[in-house]
Amino acid sequence: MHARPLTVVQMLPALHSGGVERGTVEIAEALVAAGHRAIVIADGGRYADHLRAIGAEWIPWPVGKKSLATLWRFVPKVRDLLMRERVDILHLRSRLPAWVGYLAWRRIPPALRPRLVTTVHGFYSVNRYSAVMTRGETVICVSEAIRRYVLRHYPRTDPARLVVIPRGIDPTAYPRGYRPDPDWFTQWYAQFPETRGKRWVTLPARLTRWKGQAELLTVWREIVARHPDAHALLVGGYDARRRDYVAELQQTIRAHGLENHVTLTGDRPDLKNILAASTVVLSLSTDPEAFGRTTLEALALGTRVVGYHHGGVAEQLAAIYPEGSVAVGDQTALARQIRAALDGTLPPVTQPLPERFTLAAMQHETLALYRRLAERVESP
User: Fold this and answer.
1) What are phi and psi of 37, to 5 degrees?
2) What would the 3-class secondary structure string for the chain be?
3) Which residues of the chain carry a pLDDT beneath 70?
């Protein structure tokens, strides 16, 4: 039995906020807690200090910088590190770092290579550049929808190499029935007085066209005509490339006289409180979500979710709250389900969070995968 501690290297572009970054840190935490060695190769960001604090090792190489120079500069460095540190598992989590890691791995004699794992975190554009994410000896898919995407667009991929490990949340951090404390509401209403005495219909997503804010505004005038105490919260930030889209949203709000019924909050560090205080949370992405973490957080809290039936969100709703599922683009059904939530006729969320959607399950299954691969004695 392979009993010695493992050395695992994860590679990603940087350590800013985001699902890939959070998942990397969560696996590093689990590795360290289990007595293994966790190394992360990435440029800096908000999680860098946290990695060091938990006992992981951070190597600040900008392996996600989009330049051919990144390959010639870092492929030999990563190869030397993998050899020198006798790495057991190389886990690649994003496309350009994956090319760096994969080319470095290929330069190592097969008998000396670490085991190679990739994670497909999203519905990447289908091309040779993205195909590197299917090159792992094992390919982790964050949802069944991602598994189907890989098999459909990369048919040469052996299905036996694919394993579905959903991203997970800690149910103790999102307990059923949680409510924000009064001080939080006081501060919230001071900033957003127009939301006082209203029932919140929340769309948590960055402001970009495919995330569905315009879909909500299309039906919102009709909804507030019947439910004048309904208030839409568009919770998410945007970058400079999305300014025209945000201007369109603001123009639509003004044109329909919805200024007192819609609030754009920007990015919020208190999203958990917003989800818990909402009457219903929406997922209206017109392209499928690979997983959909915020919908899972809302469901764990016991908040009703209405979402388009595709991608990872469809899997969550099917398992926890099928009443909230709406066909993609069906605005009549969308409006009907939002009204039902406001009327109180949409059933409450009673199904507990399935084990497979928990953080503990994600960590356990990933580390078990690492162990199985490390125990293999045959050459790749």
Assistant:
1) -105, 125
2) CCCCCCEEEEECCCCCCCHHHHHHHHHHHHHHHCCCEEEEECCCCCCHHHHHHCCCEEECCCCCCCCHHHHHHHHHHHHHHHHHCCCCEEEECCHHHHHHHHHHHHCCCHHHCCEEEEEECCCCCCCHHHHHHHCCCEEEECCHHHHHHHHHHCCCCCHHHEEECCCCECCCCCCCCCCCCHHHHHHHHHHCHHHCCCEEEEEECCCCHHHCHHHHHHHHHHHHHHCCCEEEEEECCCCHHHHHHHHHHHHHHHHCCCCCCEEECCCCCCHHHHHHHCCEEEECCCCCCCCCHHHHHHHHHCCEEEEECCHHHHHHHHHHCHHHEECCCCHHHHHHHHHHHHHCCCCCCCCCCCHHHEHHHHHHHHHHHHHHHHHCCCCC
3) 1-3, 377-380
Q: What is the pLDDT of residue 377?
A: 47
pLDDT digits (tens, 9 = 90+) for 195-238: 999 999 999 999 999 999 999 999 999 999 999 999 999 999 98
Which residues 6+ apart lie within 8 Å of 104 measured at CB? 74, 75, 76, 77, 78, 79, 82
CA-to-CA distance for 104 and 13, rounded, in angstroms? 16
pTM of the predicted protein model: 0.93
Express each pLDDT in 269-305 by its tens digit. Answer: 999 999 999 999 999 999 999 999 999 999 999 999 9
**How far apart are alpha carbons 51 and 224 in whole angstroms?**
46
